Amino acid sequence: MSWKKALIPLATVPVILLLAYGFWTDPRSIPSPLIRREAPNFRIAPFDGAEISLASLRGKPVIVNFWASWCFPACYEEAPLMEATWRKYKEQGLHMVGVVIQDKEPNAREFMQRFGYSFPNGPDPGSKISIDFGVYGVPETFFIDRQGRIAYKHVGALAPEVMEAQVQALLKG
Amino acid sequence: MISTLGGFSIFLALGVALYAAAAAIAGARSNREDWLASSRNAVLVHFCLVTLAIFLLEYALVTSDFSLRYVANNSTRGSLTRFKIAGLWGSLEGSILLWEWLQALFAALVVARYSDRHRELMPYVQAVLQGISVFFLALMAFGVNPFARVFPIPPDGRGLNPLLEVTDMLVHPLLLYLGYVGFSIPFAFAMAALITGRLSDEWLHITRRWTVVAWLFLTCGIFYGGWWSYRTLGWGGYWAWDPVENASFMPWLTGTAFIHSVMIQERKRMLKVWNLLLITLTFSLVIFGTFLTRSGILGSVHAFADGPVGAMFLGFLALVLLFSFGLIAYRSDHLKGRGELDSVVSRESAFLLNNLILVGICFTVFLGTVFPLLSEALRGTKISVGTPYFNRVSAPLGMALVLLMGIGPLIAWGRASLNNLRRNFLKPLLGALVATGLTAALGVHDTQALLAFLCCFFALGAIAFEFVVATRARARTTGEGRLQAFAALLLKSRRRYGGLIVHVGIVVAIIGIAISSVYKVEHEQTLKAGESLAVGRYAIRFDGLAAGERPTHILVWANLAVSRDGVPLGELSPGQRFYPNQQSPFASVDARYRWNEDLYVVLSAFERDGKTATIKAMVNPMISWIWIGGAIVVLGVVVAVLPERRLALLAVRSRPQEA
Amino acid sequence: MGRAAFARRDRGRVRGGRVGVGVVALAALFVLAAAGLAGAAGAPAPSSQALVDERVREIASELRCVVCQNLSVADSPSDLAKEMRNLIREQVEQGKGRKEILEYFVSRYGEFVLLDPPKHGFSLLVWVLPFLALAIGAGGVYLVARRWAARPADAPTPADPGYLDRVRRELTEREDGTA
């Protein structure tokens, strides 16, 4: 069989390879254009406490965590880790802010009470903050360095190792 | 017990299918009739075994035997029986079992029907069909077992997704699967023809009706899916160019191209390689579609699982592609056509253009579907290819197809002279222009819509012209009355006139698609009790919220009073359904479905105190024409597929056979 | 066979404009049937509020609802989509143009939020390839058709009268439309 004819079956090989490549990608993970760029400023009115603006926290490492009480099971899985990290590192200058997405205040408060949240959490009316951060699901966590840039974005429930590594990086930088 | 028996029957069926394939090939090569007979029996035994397996799983579902993980995941004790039955195809494992059962059924039917004919081809047809079954059985035996057990046995199952616990679920997947599996028959015959070197048109004649019936099921499945989406999902649309929807559309496109181009091969003995490529492509796209649904490489509402299944599907797809394309390349020397054309302007050319456009659309849909993957592979960034792209590219191509539907019946086979063209085209063209002018006078000013109308009127006019001329001609020669002549025409030349009716159906559907998208009117507003929202000529007044408990969910609905131009028309109650184990509620659409336009209303949001509600309403003009067009298509296929007169058959049989 | 078919077609031509009238009548019937369309198309001139709505819908239909599967922000019933639409409305009312608003979302979500791939760079391929493929295909079809038309017809082989009769009968059936 001449090589020209062999082209017909061989032409299908690139397609097959492309599809095989598909196994290594996750169709749901979307890279954020905000990484290494300045984090969008926002003002949030926490359920308890005074209004916070992100700009006022410049110079300190900040973790911004987007969550919701209806986000089951991921937010429930990572909640203890959030609180534990806060308690461990707040003395070292770490700040943590929780943004509650499309939730009702009673449900959010119940969630906060259940996990003993002691860091500020507030609602996001109009989803302005979520949209500014390009949030497309919950939970999502943004690690902001001392220069106010987004160092890392994590989609989904945070694992302890990842959290630890990122916090250390923030505190150093 | 059911679990062991079920698993065992699958393994046994796998072995029997392997044996059937091997015995068929061996029997054919060494000309042993006893082996061939044994292989035919094995095909029937295979079918019985798979029937047993499916019966066992259905039995477990209906009796709510939650010791099987599949039953626990796909039904609940409280479901209605018919949804327990439908749970069989609710997710991955069961759907594969259903597919395999249909595959085994079709293989058995083919064996039973042709057991004493086509002796050279049949063994290889069987081998190919059993080979496909082997794959699906292997998926269950070594990948995802529908009879897997679960410990501890849960007290109640998780149940089907509430969106699926509807009558539509009993219909849509079955229609699609019948179409998909149906296409494996002409594919198997094509492969057999290639393997044996019997490259005449035999395989085409034999499989023509199978192909058309498979196409019919696929068409119905696609239309039905759109109809279901529209009535249920609440966004008012029927097609989102979702990767899995595209995956059902692509084999439909190449299948349609195939049905048309075989007519050229039958008449003129041309396009042999092309037809083989088309049917291979169609079957490959069917497998590709299943691969997409089950591998998770492209995000989709329809996708259902992952695991080793994806890799196994890709492997099978690769095997099918390389094997069949390789065979075609191998035999290509013997596949040169014999026919010739009198002129470039002829019906044959119209058919070639038809194929070009259909394959072109298929290529575009395929490109758009895998492009995100390609972009990520080569650039690392994620982009999306969505509805606007697909619509923008397929709309002009769709119009070109409609034009061809008009040109086709008017242009002669062989050579079309200028006189011939002028005479045949003039009246339908004039009629179309007049009709389009009238439409513009009635208020349609959008250029795209007018162009679409022009093409559609032309096609309809050409087809009507064809019917009228033929009826008159027949009435004149046989002295029958007009109506009688018309009926006789339909009965005598079913294929031709059935085909024309199918075209009418498609054009009607395209009119529905074009108009409902261009002239859709939508409005969303938050209303307090007593307030109204205006959309089109309708006024919708919010009269209050209500809530009630249903057997499986809680329903919250809004009472709306609808009027048009001030005349009260009745009430609508769109709502939201809250299910216990679902995060967000499902929309409960309410609408006035009428042949000329639909008023479609959804409850977007509401306050807990019942004082306000956000209502979204849309007017979709002529959207029902899509479903009506689909029904006409079915009618046309039924007319076309009824058995032709014996005389015609005899004439075909005794035509001198070529090698 | 081709020539015989052509000759028979002639018989189908009807004297007078009767078929023409029939076709026009059919078409007119069709237009009347589309009366529902007239309702939608003949709707009263839109208010400025409706114009803003329309603009919002246009822009929203180019954006992907990021929490849904394959729906545009215009079509999606989700809460986030609703808020994105509100944001778009605000910006339209502020007078921002389509490009600006789309860029606003792209800078936050990445190119993925555009339902259509951008028309530059690598993504230009997906816009160009279909037309390229069609052009190549059309060229191919034309070449193939020309090659077929250039092939000389085979000399007719003599056939026995019985066979000729059958052929003639078949021809008649075809002319009447069996084919």
Spatial sequence of strands, sheet with the most strands of chain A? 5-4-3-6-7
Number of domains of chain A: 1
Give the DSSP E fraction of chain A (strand runs of 2 or more residues). 15-25%
CATH architecture of chain A: 3-Layer(aba) Sandwich
In terms of DSSP E residues, the strand content of chain B is 5-15%
| Mass-distribution shape of chain B | globular
**How many H/I helices of chain B?**
20
Query: Could you give a short account of the major beta sheet of chain B?
Result: 6 strands, antiparallel
Please tally the helical runs of chain A, counting DSSP H or I stretches of 4 or more residues: 6
- Low-confidence segments of chain A, given as residue ranges, are none
According to CATH, the homologous superfamily of chain A is Glutaredoxin
Helix content of chain B: 55-70%
Radius of gyration of chain B: 27 Å
Average pLDDT of chain B works out at 87
Structural category of chain A is alpha/beta
Structural class by helix and strand composition of chain B: alpha+beta
Structure summary, number of beta strands of chain A: 7
Q: How far is the first residue's CA from the last residue's CA of chain A?
A: 64 Å
Unreliable residue runs of chain B: 646-659
Succession of helices and strands of chain B: HHHHHHHHHHHHHHHHHHEEEEEEEEEEHH
Helix content bin of chain A: 25-40%
